[in-house]
Design a protein that fits this description.
CATH topology of the largest domain in chain A: Aspartate Aminotransferase, domain 2
Shape of chain A: globular
Structural class of chain A: alpha/beta
Order of helices and strands of chain A: HEHHEHEHEHEHEHHEEHHHEEHEEEH
Distance between the termini of chain A: 54 Å
Radius of gyration of chain A: 20 Å
Number of helices of chain A: 14
CATH architecture of the largest domain in chain A: 3-Layer(aba) Sandwich
CATH superfamily of the largest domain in chain A: Type I PLP-dependent aspartate aminotransferase-like (Major domain)
Oligomer: homodimer
Chain lengths: ~375, ~375
């Protein structure tokens, strides 16, 4: 049977290995596996959110309020924006999918950094669009602006802080790209890790309201990282109403589960958990920087909840990831991104101890 | 800003009114509202599923196992099919979206019954495809076969039992359509309510394995109805591996939440709840048939968990739906489908009592 030709070039996405797979493949007890591969919140689920889920466990048969009235109200208050500037997705991922389907088609172009979030390319390929990448893995504004002038892309992705490298754009650089964009170019500012950037250095953070001033920009946020709801699939987009209306046409009804909606509403007012998450991260990330310095390899200055160790010629990231896996520690090898690097979620003190012990053993 | 032209003809989908909205609009206490509009399971959430959700409430920060190993294994055993014939969606809705995006494009054609599940058309419009409908609201095999010969559609939707009418195709009629389909036509057999048809009359039910024998057919099932997981968004498609591979290219990673995955795995072995759901339905639906007969209006013989009251000239479905709403009873008016009819979920004895009392009051 024939399918649309855009599918020909698409490979099925393989996500990071879940703990269950390591248990099955290496026979390691589940409680012994340390997963620092998916940037999940090492503090776990907020106790307030877990209580909300338990209290709503017997509502699994009921469809959610598809207007998402309460969640939109909570987000609208949190960011001081109007409700008609909001769209909720099953993770900010789904909003990315809406963007791709609303703007891209064969012949359309998207521009992104050489090394950035994998789904930008996957969703663009599904639409048959042409993918353009800047030469550097960093988000260099001059490279973006030059390629925007030359190619007039339909969509530009600015992932800041960037996954999987961890670096972020300076505010002035981000605004320079936004100011230089053609009015028909949709510039997506993916702030999935913005909470960590803001806590580290406000010069590298933006507020959704600042993005909302541009008629051709979309801000993306998520509950998956600092709010600890990775498994619940809730993210959001913030943009001027014309953009939101177009994206809403592609939103399937009930795209958030009943429990996800309840969890996200609770998370919106759970500042205590957010502060704790950021504090744990601040306390632990220095150990990764120190470990890299002590072992004379580079790391990328991180504005996220993970750190990227960028090795020179002596170490091979794929071998290291495999050796860590055998010791029950799951990290993300960035070889497929063209980097000899490992992306490691900064965990709890005990999880990080396990990683450093495994590294010591491997490096001998 | 310009968007893809396919979006021009799309209106934003409005789901049925949630209880919260009726509470807000009519000032009725939430516990007084009876919702018989969304075909949610009136028995509620299975106690075993609710226990699973509570036990996993503190795993909301963890991404689900994206291979869905355990759920696929459970479904594979339940239906005696190979795992490579399975795809999991956020509701069977999401599998419908994959079908549309894999097969449809401007110039492509889809064929469906005059009155059937609204999302077939919405997803087809998103792809810019041409929508063809049979003249009758019933799924008449001769109409489908004639239109298939004339138009050679890329996708045919057979919703059996059909939503929102409740009728179903006889097995021999369904197989006649499948046998007459062009090898390049994908025939989707949407069995969202199949458990109810099987319990009522096996002549109107098919097994996924029977659909799997066709190289150009896809069976859809869901946990939203008989299994009581409407709010958790889990459905599945079953087809030969070539079709599944194409659809998997469009599946976003982590399309099911961590709690939805756990809930669905539990539901797969929860035969006790399934039997209870079917028994309650069998016990209550006769009351709706008797009420219609007593008040001299038609109903459509139902193979689903709802019944459709099909009025003659004397009663107006829109007025009735509004009058019921004012009394705190939410049902689905089918005026927008071109029928002077109400679709009513068969509820618990107490819920149905409320509906009949409100109807008595309205009819005077």
């Amino acid at each position: 049977m024939k399918f649309n030709k855009e599918l020909d070039s698409i490979k099925v996405y393989e996500a990071g290995k879940p703990i269950e797979l390591v248990v099955r493949e290496f026979g390691i007890a589940p409680e012994e596996v340390v997963k620092l591969a998916s940037n999940e919140n090492p503090l776990g689920t907020s106790p307030r959110v877990a209580a909300t889920i338990r209290a709503n466990a017997d509502k699994a048969h009921l469809y959610p309020d598809d207007s998402m009235f309460e969640l939109k109200e909570a987000l609208s208050q949190r960011y001081d924006v109007l409700e008609e500037t909001l769209i909720i997705g099953a993770g900010s991922d789904q909003v990315l999918e809406f963007v791709s389907r609303a703007k891209l088609h064969p012949g359309a172009k998207v521009l992104m950094s050489r090394v950035t979030f994998a789904m930008y390319e996957i969703y663009a390929r599904q639409q048959g669009a042409t993918i353009l990448r800047t030469p550097d893995w960093r988000h260099r504004p001059e490279e973006f602006l030059a390629m925007m002038r030359e190619h007039r892309p339909d969509v530009v992705y600015l992932c800041t802080p960037n996954n999987p490298t961890g670096d972020a754009m300076r505010r002035e650089d981000l605004f320079a790209v936004l100011d230089g964009a053609d009015p028909e170019t949709l510039v997506v500012v993916d702030g999935a890790y913005m909470e960590y950037a803001r806590a580290k250095d406000p010069d590298y953070a933006v507020d959704p309201r600042e993005i909302l001033e541009y008629p051709n920009a979309l801000y993306l946020g998520t509950f998956s990282k600092a709010y600890g709801l990775g498994g619940m699939r809730v993210g959001y987009g913030i943009a001027q109403p014309g953009i939101i209306e177009a994206l809403l046409k592609l939103r399937p009804p009930f795209n958030i589960t009943t429990l996800s909606l309840a969890a996200a509403i609770t998370a919106c007012s759970d500042d205590e958990f957010l502060e704790k998450s950021l504090a744990l991260h601040r306390e632990q990330i220095g150990r990764y920087e120190a470990y890299a310095r002590a072992h004379r390899f580079d790391y990328i200055e991180s504005y996220t909840n993970f750190i990227t160790w960028n090795f020179g010629g002596d170490l091979n990231s794929t071998d290291l990831a495999e050796a860590l896996l055998e010791r029950g520690v799951i990290v993300r090898d960035l070889a497929s991104y063209g980097l000899n690097a490992l992306r490691i979620t900064v965990g709890t003190a005990a999880q990080n101890d396990r990683l450093f012990a495994a590294m010591d053993e491997i490096l001998g």
